Amino acid sequence: MAPSSCTHQVQNADAGLQSQTWSSTILPHSPYYTSHCTSYTPSLQYCSPGPSISEVVFGVSQARAQHCIWYGECGESQVPGKKYNCNYTGPALPLPEEGHEHEDLLELLGFDYGNRSLCCDVQQLKTLKASLELPLQFLSRCPACFFNLMNLFCELTCSPRQSLFLNGTDFSPYPPDQHNVVKVSYYIGQTFANAMYNACRDVQAPSSNVRALSLLCGQDASHCTPTNWIEYMFDTNNGQTPFAIKPIFTDVPEAGFSPMTNTTYGCTDILEDGSGPCSCQDCSQSCGPKPVPPPQPPPWTILGMDGMSVVMWITYVVFLLSFVGGVVGAWCYRSEFAAYPGMDASCCERFGERFENALRILFTSWGSFCVRRPLVVILASIVLVAACSSGLIYMHVTTDPVELWSSPSSQARQEKEYFDTHFGPFFRTEQLIITTPLVPDPPYSPYPIGDDVPFGAPLRKDVLHQVLDFQTDIENLEATYQGERVTLKDICLTPLAPYNSNCTILSVLNYYQNSHDVLDHTTTDGFWTTADYHSHFLYCVSAPASLNDTTPLHDPCMGTFGGPVFPWLILGGYDATNYNNATALVITFPVNNYHNDTKKLGKALAWEKEFIDFVKNYSNPNLTIAFSSERSIEDEINRESESDISTILVSYIIMFVYISLALGHIQSCRRVLVDSKISLGIAGILIVLSSVICSLGVFSYIGIPLTLIVIEVIPFLVLAVGVDNIFIIVQTYQRDERMPQEELHQQIGRILGDVAPSMFLSSFSETVAFFLGGLSSMPAVRTFSLFAGLAVFIDFILQISCFISLLGLDIKRQESNRLDILCCVKLSEGQEEKSDGFLFRFFKKVYAPFILKEWVRPLVAVFVGVLSFSIAVINKVEVGLDQTLSMPDDSYVLDYFGNMSEFLHTGPPVYFVVEEGHDYLTMEGQNSVCGGVGCNNNSLVLQVYTASLISSYTKIGFTPSSWLDDYFDWIKPQSGCCRYYNGTGAFCNASVENTTCVNCRPMTQSGKQRPTGQDFMRFLPMFLSDNPNPKCGKGGHASYSAGVDLIGNDTNVGATYFMTYHTILKTSADFIDAMKKARNLADNITDTMGLQGTSYRVFPYSVFYVFYEQYLTIVFDTAFNLSVSLGAIFLVSTVLLGFEVWSAVLVSLTIAMILVNMFGVMWLWGISLNAVSLVNLVMSCGISVEFCSHIVRAFSISTKTTRVERAEEALAHMGSSVFSGITLTKFGGILILALSKSQIFQIFYFRMYLAIVLLGATHGLIFLPVLLSYVGPSVNKAKVQAAHSRFVGTEREHLLNF
Hints:
- This protein is an alpha+beta fold.
- It starts with 5 loop residues before the first helix and ends in an 11-residue tail after the last helix.
- Strands 1, 2, 5, 6 and 9 form a five-stranded mixed sheet that branches. Strands 17-18-12-19 form a four-stranded antiparallel sheet, with helices on both faces.
- It is found in: Endomembrane system.
């Protein structure tokens, strides 16, 4: 970049010296100074004897303008490796002849070789070049910034008019007859300083996600100002400035000196050599107005109240008025159609009756056969169970959260597979959050001046020493896997391997090289401590990539693993960027994850187990440690499941005992052991469990893995369905009277013919509903639905076969007066009269008549009120799963979650992945991705950067790292980073001193442009293998080698990623919103890059997306699954109720009310919507069938005259069985779950199960009978006629008049 004006050249001339001095301030051993002057090639017109800007403005004499204050280098400076300049007060001297050998230096530094005179020699030019290399690597992204900076240093170093603005104030002798310049004053225009700072303040350092000034100013960029930046660069304490330079900022002449006020460029300006303005990422002025987050949509309100609530209140009031009017009108004009046998039935009614009769005949014959051939049926059942359950040998229980919650076909799962395949799996994380009960030390007082700096208690030196001991103990942990010794070094992340085998440890101790000696390192002036661990910390948090803290300590900040340790990753509990106020230390051990490598993964798991055990047992009164390992959550979930086994067993034992005792109908104390049905109850329970085992076995044959949800929920579901059917069969028999001449097998067959269609209706409805639930994309829901559907169906088959045979045998035992269980013992003869049980008599004589009284029935309007409330709050149910709920109450992970929310400031990393297919070899392809000069304003990097400006909305916390932009800076010929051996073509690292090493690209105008085509690919592998070093901080090995997938034998670029971080995410809503916003951003990038219709796209990836993606669609999934289940229940009910559509509608309506009310309970009880609660909702849909279908079918086949009478009959007969069966059985077992230590059991099982049973019982036993009494289907005349023809003239004729 070559300004042609004399003025610009003057600026460029002095830039050299400062850049030399300044470069040292950036990184130790001047690794970062190489090429800002490089990009500028001003002619030496400024060296002409004509008047300079200073002369014109301030009238300074021509003679003084030609006066130098130094020339050449002399003695060794007190700063190691540096030299003083030689004092010289004569005119500028022509560049010596040997300068011909260094035309590249002149080109690099912006000088046009000719007969111009300078105040610097060739060696000073070399020093200037070395000093500018590091700034070039970081600031040349913005041409105007580096041009201004180059002016500052070149004017200082080489200007022939140094005496205008430089004043030597201290000298020392240099034998034999020269003097060293030890101290100078540099008069700098305040306007110039401000302009230089303004052009540079926004320039980014892509590899470290921070602004470049954080690496070049000695403190965080937010605290950097024009004056303290220049003062820092000129301070000998930075380890790079060879002598003291005192900047004096003024815009007017002072003490006879005129300030250096050369022309500057703003970051939005185009330079005279054609260099474009800086990008938006590096120059906020180029961005236009700062983006403003869209306003949050206001809540829907009516008259200041929640809109949905108002609408539902109005709807309920309208319903109440209509309902009351209808009830009053119906009471005044009461009439009820009576179905008499003589009336003609419709075709549909006749078809329904025939279908009903066919089912009755089928089940009657089958029941009779089962009683007559019990041995055959029982053996066949045992064979069936054995055959199905043998599949358990192939059983596989999956506890992998990815397999549980993410479908293989889901977007997040596919993106995870793509990321893992191309870049390797995301590393495993072992993390500790350490606090201390100790009080902070007194504030630190910087030397020699400065405000006191408070330090948090964890940053006390004695605490840091203890933490270092603790960290070292962890590093030395050893585990054993398959007889092999496993240490952290075997599994840890080593980004610079094989050159550097140190493990990555993100810890504040890495600022001190994980060394007690470095932590204790101090310097003094004999009286005062000039630098210690405090000053080193303050520097490192501002410039974590520095190799020299530029304090008198000169210790590196870079971690021992070869990478920077960013303060926001290792400190917690600070405010803004005041890292010194940290109240917590965060230590992270990234461990390699292994894609499809079981052995290596096993080693990592073994070491993690040792890590967990060690930290659990570690004790230090000064340290409070919260921690987590990658395996912790899975381990704790497994432990939680094991700890709740006893609770679950007690729950099932209570249900089993109740079933065994409640089935019996005790006639007298004498016959207690005869009339009890303990053995039959146990057999019924075994049948239920057998159906569950069969289901597990069948799907294990197929290869579908089990989940903990299947194991925990399905027995509860099938027990509910199975127990209900058992009670219906047994209690129907107990109420039945055997007709004369009727044998036992005929009686049981007849009973089964009466009740089996109802059982078939409920079981088949549930089976179809559950199987259709298998269409869900959520693995947990799909697996549960498939297992549940088959288990319910097998349970029905076994109940109408094996259980019927066992019932026949038990009745024979009872009739022969043999004791239950001890069937060999027989009581003396004596048959008791049969009588109805207490519960049946209560329902028949008290409950049913009461519920169906004229003045009681209208009270069911309360159910509609509850429904209205539930609809009003259904959209307020939270979505997600608080991760703390998945842990046991006593889990150490809960402490970690709490500390993470309280102390951490940075969220998970997020990668914007560009899939394979993008053309990086063309300028157009590069511009659509990169973020530097010339890149599109809507490029990938700039869009992510723009999103980070409104992080509270986008959840993108930082500027993205960009391998492409760093590669462009690395390959510039001015940088000195990209070199190769001239003879072999092999890469030559910048730290190598070898004359055969040449720049990758020539120092020509075309060579300074971005590489394209084969040039781009020729040097990219070198960049990705280059380790950062003091002479080149842009090497891409550590930062980017894993993020760029080279294909075609390194001839092209495949998939790549650009990494940044999310903001801190604390709740499920935060995680969901972060993923949603990142996907929206990636979709917009894909669109603006013009990738529509191509084979690749841009997508975001973070490790948590695969778990939280389900919540993006869970509302739809819930509506879909429940709607499909309800639809299936409606269709099956329509068919099996003899095509009585209205009956099926009422069944479906009642179940829908139960489901909607479940959402109301979820809102009231703080139960969020997630995969676990969705499984329970699907299950509640199935269980609700048991509460409703039996009542409705009993109503539909009743031959009573009025709806009220039919509802009363149905409620008396079926209601008592439903209440004593499913309701009481489940209620007793559910109460025990409240004692569980597991929060997830207490919330998602106890609370939801209790709500399912209570809502099902109240709707099935209160609301539904009343609803049927009002709007139930009319009596089926064909069924009435068939009943009359079947019963009239027989002993059962009295049943027609119940």
